[in-house]
Amino acid sequence: MTERLLSVENLTVSFATRDGDNQAVRGIHFHVDKGETLGIVGESGSGKSVTARSIMSLISPPGQITAGSIRFRGQDCLAWTEKEWRKLRGNRISMIFQDPMTSLNPLKRIGQQLTEVLRRHRGLDRQQANQEAERLLQEVGISDAKTRLRQYPHEFSGGMRQRVMIAMALSCQPDLLIADEPTTALDATIQAQILDLFKSLKQRSDTAIVLITHDLGVVAQVCTRVIVMYGGLIMEEGRVEDIFYRPQHPYTQGLLRSLPQRGSGSRERLVPIEGTPPNLLHPPAGCPFAERCPHVFASCTQMPPMTETEPGHYSMCWLSHEAAIAGDHDHKLAAEGVEHHE
């Protein structure tokens, strides 16, 4: 039987601004099972990173979790004290942040920052921690690791700093690893190496991974399930093969059409998604994708429910409902200038 590691229910997060509350995440539900890799994809501003930081209890003013629950191994994370969180962060739950320069202390050597984690959470002595830190840097593709441990963050390139952060996150073999755009600053060779590391970690220690990215190619390589976010909501959820081969939501279909297809040639014309994401200071009452959707009709002014279109595959779109047929018919009549009467 699969063990439920993380459960997120009705998570709602907002940020206070001069103009009102920015509703970054609007009541989302999802789960992560032990040993699986869940991909969270979507455009910038869709709520991906805010969701990740909420799981880690790293939302600070003016941000606030206003509703919902987050449970890790059945325990209510939102009830934990900061002291309890310090024991868990970097140990049972680790996160790789999008910008490594905000996570590494510029005044401390890389070796000191790595060994602090190893000594605190794994109880290693100084010599053991130094040896393990050196091994971790080698594992993430940093050569001459012994010398590098004595250097400061500013002496590393952006890609190398990201690899240091990955080494720190992997150091305690966590139960749950949250990776926010972990390969953005890396070249293709190192990216492949890091993705192989994630696969190895999952096989070796049954670590569950939440991978947040805009790169669907990365998702296809390592994920088992995928969540597609837009406008602070989950638009679609399913196994990786469901999302790539049988996408149900028009937004997911648009994301896939905007990617170059393998073997299609350099003259292939990509299809962008026209328009811009919704203003989350005043989010629409209905489907947040309606203004950009090629299939929009009357029902889209109301929020569609999440519907299971096939086992384990969910879509939040009226096109998944029989009610959409009548709405689509009305939409076509209106487009032709024909008045419709009941």
Automatic annotation (TrEMBL):
<dbReference type="InterPro" id="IPR050388">
    <property type="entry name" value="ABC_Ni/Peptide_Import"/>
</dbReference>
<dbReference type="Pfam" id="PF00005">
    <property type="entry name" value="ABC_tran"/>
</dbReference>
<dbReference type="InterPro" id="IPR013563">
    <property type="entry name" value="Oligopep_ABC_C"/>
</dbReference>
<keyword id="KW-1003">Cell membrane</keyword>
<keyword id="KW-0547">Nucleotide-binding</keyword>
<dbReference type="InterPro" id="IPR017871">
    <property type="entry name" value="ABC_transporter-like_CS"/>
</dbReference>
<dbReference type="InterPro" id="IPR003593">
    <property type="entry name" value="AAA+_ATPase"/>
</dbReference>
<protein>
    <submittedName>
        <fullName>ABC transporter ATP-binding protein</fullName>
    </submittedName>
</protein>
<comment type="similarity">
    <text>Belongs to the ABC transporter superfamily.</text>
</comment>
<dbReference type="GO" id="GO:0005524">
    <property type="term" value="F:ATP binding"/>
</dbReference>
<keyword id="KW-0813">Transport</keyword>
<keyword id="KW-0472">Membrane</keyword>
<keyword id="KW-0067">ATP-binding</keyword>
<dbReference type="Pfam" id="PF08352">
    <property type="entry name" value="oligo_HPY"/>
</dbReference>
<feature type="domain" description="ABC transporter">
    <location>
        <begin position="6"/>
        <end position="256"/>
    </location>
</feature>
<dbReference type="InterPro" id="IPR027417">
    <property type="entry name" value="P-loop_NTPase"/>
</dbReference>
<dbReference type="InterPro" id="IPR003439">
    <property type="entry name" value="ABC_transporter-like_ATP-bd"/>
</dbReference>
